[in-house]
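Table S2 (continued). Query chain:
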Amino acid sequence: MSRKKFGQLLQKYLRGECTPAEKAFVEHWYGLIDTEESGQELDMNELENRLWDQIQSKMPKDEPGRVIPFRSTPLRWIGIAASLLLVGWLYFAQRQSSPVNPADSLISLVQGDWVERTNNSTHPLVIRLEDGSAVKLAAHSSLRFPTHFATENRTVYLTGDAFFSVAKMPTRPFYVYVGSVVTKVLGTSFFVRSQSATNQVRVEVVTGRVSVYKETPRKLATTDGVVLSPNQTATFFEEEQHFVTGLVDSPLVIRTSEKEQKPISFQFDDTPLAEVLVRLEQAYGINIEVENDSQKACPLTADLTDQPLYTQLDIICAALKAKYEVKGTTILLTGKGCSD
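Corresponding output:
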């Protein structure tokens, strides 16, 4: 550190603009002089000269940063501490004049601006985020989120289980990180469930569309991922490093806007199976296929109102002597047909 920079540091100290490290550096050296020159009043120029001389007397000219042993007095340890501070300050000054890694700055900023909430109760905890999104945090789960989202995206970190209702912002995607799994949405509602014992992460979509993929280094392209629609789910298996898609345990009728919403009737009177399945597909957004085309004409008379999807399928299969099986995100009906 040059004499000029040292003078600038003192001026900065007097203006109250020093960092904690800079302030400690000045005050330690001033305390040393004040103790040795007890009762002597110094003006600013004299103080600067004394401080600089004191620093130079403790630092060898050929090896800056190394402390010279000096007389053994009660002030010896103060001098050592001050000299160590000087070494730290010289390193700080060198860092200030060298390029700063943006990632280091980002980490420091994030650590200071992020909040972590942990639900230690036995009931879900609702957390409101600044963008209008809401998170229902399950018991014994934690959510880490920024006090202010970035302008280009919205990112949170989850440990455990939570239900997300994300405010729609097409230009600012919302990211949920759970271990190595990333869920990306623009505006939707979905569940994220993680199991630490098995290292499995499960995403279940209620509304909208969700992209789920494994986090990779920025230089590598992300190819291993899935896109989910309502009532679909994907489970990531850490050991196998792959996703398995399927349907949620209890599919719900998809909610649409009030203008587009038309009640779907689940009352059928000699209705062909093909039409019955079309109504179910429209209601739940799930693809239902029939293995035997001759089944499509089979008539169904039944009231399936207020029944969950799998119960509706049980009733249909019982009436038409068929079976159903969930294969990934598709339901497959099998049977001989009504004419056999």
